[in-house]
Structure formats: C-alpha cells, structure tokens
Amino acid sequence: MEGYFDSFTILAAFTVGVFVLLLIDLLLLSGKAHHVGMKEATLLTILWTLVAAAVGVWVFIAGGTELGIEYTTAYVAERALSIDNLFVFLVIFNYFALPDLFRSRALLFGIVGALVARAVFIFFAVGIISVFEPVLYLLAAVLIYTAYKLITSHGEDVDPSKNIVARVFRRIYPISDEYDGHNFFTVKNGIRMATPFALVVLVLASTDVVFAIDSIPTVVGISKNEFIIWSSNAMAVLGMRPLFFLLEGLVNLFRYLSYGLAAILAFIGVKIIVETAIHDQFHDLIHNLGVPDGQISITITLGSLAIVIAILVISVIASVVLPQSEEDHHRHDEAAA
User: Fold this and answer.
1) 174 φψ region: left (φ > 0), alpha (ψ -120 to 50), beta (else)
2) Whole-angstrom distance, CA of residue 321 vs CA of residue 253
3) How far apart, in whole angstroms, are the C-alpha atoms of residue 258 and residue 164?
4) Which of 22, 63, 215, 320 is the most buried (most CB within 10 A)?
C-alpha cells in the first residue's frame, strides 16, 4: 500500500493510540504507589516489546519490507539510546532521594513529557528538512559531536543540581522539603508549595529534551518517513518505565554501552553525510557490488540494521568479558548508590 504511512489520518490515529496506551498504563498497569519487582518489570518489558513488535508487523504488512526494516532499525537504535538515558534517570532519582515507591509514577509522568517534546522535535525537524535538505549536515554534525562526547565524558556531566529548569522553578515557586506521596503540590504552614516529586518530574522531562537532540537526528538518519520516525520513538519511550526497573541492578552489564552508542551515532552521522553529499555515487557503488537497482535502498537499510545490532551485541559482550577497571567500578557504584 504505497503512501499508506504518509497519510495524516494514520499518523493522527497512531498518536491517539499512543496516549490511550499511556492512560491504560497510568490507570491499570501502574496502579498505586508500589515497589516494582523484577517479575513485574520483566512482564511489562515483554508486553511493551510485543506492542512495539505489533506496530512493526503492521508497518511491514501495510508499508512494505523497506519501511518495515527502517522501523526495526530505528526502534532498536532508540531502545539502545533509552538504556543510556535510564542510567541518567537513576542518578536523578538518587540525587533527589526519591522513594522507591514513587519511582514508577515519576517515570510515567516523565514519559508523557518526553513524548510531547519528541513529537514537537520530530514534526519541526521533518518540516525543516522537507524545505531545506542541507540541514541534514547539521544533524550529522550533532550526531558525530555527541559520539565524541559519549567517548570522552564518561557521564561526568550528569549533575541534576545544574538542571536549568529545576533552578528556575525553585526561584519562582516554593518547594517543600518533604515528599507528599506522589502529589505535585502540598500545603505546609498554610502555604501552597510544590513537592520534590514535582521537581523530579520536571527534571526528567527537561533531561529528555536534551536526549531528544541526539535521538531525533539518529532516527532521521535511518528514515525520512514521518510515521516511522515518530512511531519508533514513541514505542521506545513507552517501554522505558519497566525497562528502568529491569536494568536498575544490571549497571555493570552495560559498562561499555556508551562506546557502542558512540559508534552507532557516528555511523549514522557518516551515513547521513554520504547519502546526502554523494547519493548517486554511493548507489552506483552498491550496484557495482552486484545489487540490482530495485534492491539498493532496502540493502542499505538492512545493512544499517545489521551494523546497529552488531555494535550493540559487541558492547554488551565486551561489558561481560572484559575486566572492570577501578574507575569504572567507582563510577557505577556511585550511579547505583
């Protein structure tokens, strides 16, 4: 069905479906404030992964093989980026001493903010690219610079006390010293005040805006289809909450994830430059390798998926096999504290 996923009606219907799923999560799956154990986190992670897979099947059937592979590649890349984000969220929770009982609800509200922010970024970015394609070079530069920062910073810049949204909010609204369940506001000595829980949610949402600056160019480097960009992002973000609790105790398993993510971002950045600057020559090269003209685009897309998965697998294997340095041990102990 050519052009099926170019329809605004399909895009709008999917967006409504995403927020319906969020509402179901809020009312049924999250329930009351409680500790999310490994069993619940595993089951919910499987559930959201199956939902993402169902969307993928839909894309394959209605949009064709190439769009299906683009969706899968984008989803895998976004899922990998979200893992790195979740460890930053852990630092934020520990900084604000957020009780374990309220972490699930804070993540859920943070996810709502993340979805809204990413939707704005996506539709703005796609609109600009459609009228001014050279902006792709800027997106490629962002990805390559972010790859460099991932390799050199080692997470040292994660400091919730420097979050500009939190600092501004503290100046314009009084903040209570104590949590009042998962309420955003409370009354103390007759004064209406925001709770630390509200501050945590604000920091989570604003932090994800920064993540989106890396995330959106990554997906744009994989697909130019608006639905694919939005759906892969939405599905990855929806699965973040249970994945956080599943990975919370497995920090050491992802010691080298930042290097893997850096490689993925750099690869996609270079891919954007190559496909924009020397598109015809690059396609001629693939054709000269024996790929039929009608299969060149899908071959490039399939190759991108294989490279992304291979990099992730290698980074996890390296984390398991290679010994942990004292510096890594100290840093991960601080994140889990």
Assistant:
1) beta
2) 10
3) 24
4) 215
- Name 186's bridge partners: 193
> What Cα–Cα distance (Å) separates residue 207 from each residue in 42, 119, 166, 217?
25, 15, 11, 17
- Mean pLDDT by 10-residue block, N- to C-terminus, for the chain (337 residues)? 80 92 75 71 89 95 91 89 77 83 83 83 81 81 83 63 77 84 84 88 80 78 89 90 76 73 86 82 82 78 86 85 62 50
Contacts of 288 (CB under 8 A, 6+ apart): none
Report residue 116 as tokens: 């809204």
What secondary structure does DSSP assign to 141-191, as a single string?
HHHHHHHHHHHHHTTTT--GGG-HHHHHHHHHS-B-SS--TT-SEEEETTE
The whole-angstrom separation of Cα 241 and Cα 48 is 10
Give DSSP secondary structure letters for 79-112: HHHHHHHHHHHHHHHHHTT--GGGHHHHHHHHHH
- One-letter amino acid for residue 62 of the chain: A
Question: Is the overall model pTM greater than 0.90, yes or no?
Answer: no
Q: Are 48 and 111 in contact (CB under 8 A)?
A: no
